[in-house]
Design brief:
This protein is mainly beta. It has a single domain, classed as Porin, CATH 2.40.160. Helix content is 5%, strand content 55%. It contains two helices and 20 strands. The protein has a 16-stranded antiparallel β-barrel with strand order 3-4-5-6-7-8-9-10-11-14-15-16-17-18-19-20. Strands 12-13 form a two-stranded antiparallel sheet. Strand 16 and strand 17 form a beta hairpin.
Length: 407
């Protein structure tokens, strides 16, 4: 709470000024240009600007309640405030800008810098970026803001295969080229990366999110070999966007004081993402699929998978768009998500039977948007989780209710 107090006081001061002089503080809405892509999500957010002051601020918050049970056993009703995120951006000089994204998780228990980089625009096809970079693997990692989604939980594949909001210190290039209804974009970065916690962690399995627990990745590389992340995507104004990305590097410490102590062991992730809106009925469809390959040492047991895969598919259908309860242009949506992750693709060499460490889930829901900046959502979640040996799946079901809003 002590960490949050200065920020809360600052926001209250801004609110007071805004109430006394509405012309001083203005909200800059997110750009709704249909040629905006997932790579633009970091800047395509609503900000508050203050006169001619060169700094703009914004953010979003999420809060929800949940009631879950597994195989008939429940811990009852719980309330959560998973995150409050602040954005601060500044135009330093023409074609030079800076943006930071700071996230307070679990009521301020954890504070993380998710993005803090300077962009230098040389040409639409050639721009430089350096600092804390959001690695562009898949689409959700870049475009993860809670108010943009109709579902309370983030997808399994984007949190347990791709570490959620995976970012590192590094440098790279990005650019776009537009022609008529098409726009093509690319990104390429060298950053610090994973460490050997992905195969040495309390989960006792190959677990990529374990590397997020190492704050030293923002100070130095674990092994001196950069993590490479590249992405290319193409978007059509009337059809949608398709992106392909790859991230790879060495994750283990193979050299100590100049002496080779192990072979270099790689980790590689490939992802494909897509989104489209069906004409006339405005059904929004978005999906992502990811593969991960990890070189696990031969002396590790089968609990540690060397191949992982998973993805999700969301379908959102607006069923009512009108003035509701005094809010103009409000929208009521029906939503459905299906997702699957397999943490250990392969077979037991002794029996030639499949390794069955996987989860399958379905999530129907309904959401209400009094504005594009705010979503109130209700989800029902049901998933089947099968253990390594393929025993009958543990069944988890529950309801969730909450909201997420930009401010």
């Amino acid at each position: 709470m002590k960490n949050l107090l200065p920020i809360i006081l600052f926001l209250l001061c801004l609110q007071t000024i805004a109430q006394t002089d509405s012309s001083f503080i203005k909200r800059t809405p997110a750009d709704t240009n249909k040629l905006k892509m997932n790579m633009d999500a970091v800047y395509n957010r609503p900000f508050l600007t203050m006169g001619k002051f060169p700094v703009a601020i914004g953010g979003y918050v999420e809060a929800n309640s949940s009631y879950f049970g597994t195989d008939g056993v429940t811990e009852g009703l719980s309330f959560q405030m998973p995150r409050l995120t602040l954005f601060i951006s500044s135009s330093i000089k023409k074609r030079i800008k800076f943006l930071s994204e700071i996230e307070f998780e679990e009521g301020g228990k954890e504070i993380a810098i998710e993005f803090a980089s300077m962009d230098i625009e040389l040409h639409p096809l050639l721009n430089l970026r350096g600092g804390v970079i959001m690695n562009p693997i898949g689409a959700f990692n870049q475009n993860h803001d809670g108010p943009k989604w109709e579902f309370i939980n983030r997808p399994f594949s984007a949190t347990t295969i791709i570490p959620s909001t995976w970012s590192n210190v590094g440098f790279g290039l990005f650019g776009k080229y537009a022609m008529n209804n098409f726009v093509w974009a690319y990104e390429a970065y060298l950053t610090n990366g994973f460490d050997d916690k992905i195969i040495s962690n309390p989960e006792n399995r190959t677990w990529l999110p374990a590397s997020k627990e190492n704050p030293e990745r923002f100070e130095e590389s674990f092994n001196g070999v950069p993590l490479v992340t590249t992405k290319t995507a193409i978007r059509h104004r009337k059809i949608g966007e398709v992106g392909v990305s790859w991230m790879g590097g060495v994750y283990n410490q193979f050299r100590v004081d100049g002496i080779m102590v192990d072979k270099q062991r790689r980790i590689d992730l490939f992802a494909i993402d897509l989104n489209t809106t069906l004409p006339k009925i405005n059904t929004y469809i978005t999906g992502e699929w990811v593969w991960a390959m990890v070189e696990v040492p031969d002396n590790y047991t089968k609990e540690y998978g060397n191949k992982l895969r998973g993805g999700f598919l969301d379908v959102v259908q607006p069923i009512l768009k009108r003035k509701i309860l005094g809010w103009e242009n409000s929208t009521l949506n029906l939503a459905f998500r299906t997702e699957y992750v397999d943490y250990n693709v392969g077979t037991f060499s002794e029996t030639e039977t499949n390794i069955a460490d996987h989860i399958f889930a379905v999530v129907p829901g309904i959401s209400f948007r009094p504005s594009a900046l705010t979503v109130i959502r209700f989800n029902y979640r049901y998933h089947w989780q099968t253990d390594l040996l393929g025993n009958p799946a543990a069944r988890t079901a529950g309801i969730q209710f909450g909201f997420s809003t930009y401010f």
